[in-house]
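Co-fold these.
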Amino acid sequence: AQKVTQAQTEISVVEKEDVTLDCVYETRDTTYYLFWYKQPPSGELVFLIRRNSFDEQNEISGRYSWNFQKSTSSFNFTITASQVVDSAVYFCALINSNSGYALNFGKGTSLLVTP
Amino acid sequence: EPEVTQTPSHQVTQMGQEVILRCVPISNHLYFYWYRQILGQKVEFLVSFYNNEISEKSEIFDDQFSVERPDGSNFTLKIRSTKLEDSAMYFCASGGTGSGGYTFGSGTRLTVV
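Predicted complex below.
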């Protein structure tokens, strides 16, 4: 069985604060893929990052960074110097090769960045 | 940048009616998916399609649902007899590989009244 848990339902920060969104996953597979998607108020799903289970290097893309730790089954997402445009729902998701490559999403974290 | 296109963006239908949601995936992609998101909830997998057949489906995807790739470019989701609980945003996605980062369409909001 596989499961993705995003324990933070809603987070509210003031612009320019850093914020970390938590994601904890469960899977029995050794080969799996983790993703983050952003869903802005307009409703579309925007791909942010894909990470495979063999690559534990952290990644930074502009103000975004991801911390993948297999030892704690976590794939956390940090936004540095948040902006109002970062307000959205963020979903963590998991694929393993036994699931027909179906994305298993967490429940999402709603981030509100206020001026 | 290539896009996945979904039409219509919003559809209102009466309970019991059949609806067809349409998607044009990215042209060189081989894997196609439908997901749904009930308002305020998480995104749920419905079905995956590869090599002209269903490769995986969830328990949500019962006999009321079907998918088709009628002409090599479109990918459709049909709901035969809609129920109130089918009201949701339906997302189509396509991918070049099974494990890659899919591209999602902008969704069709289905409202069953």
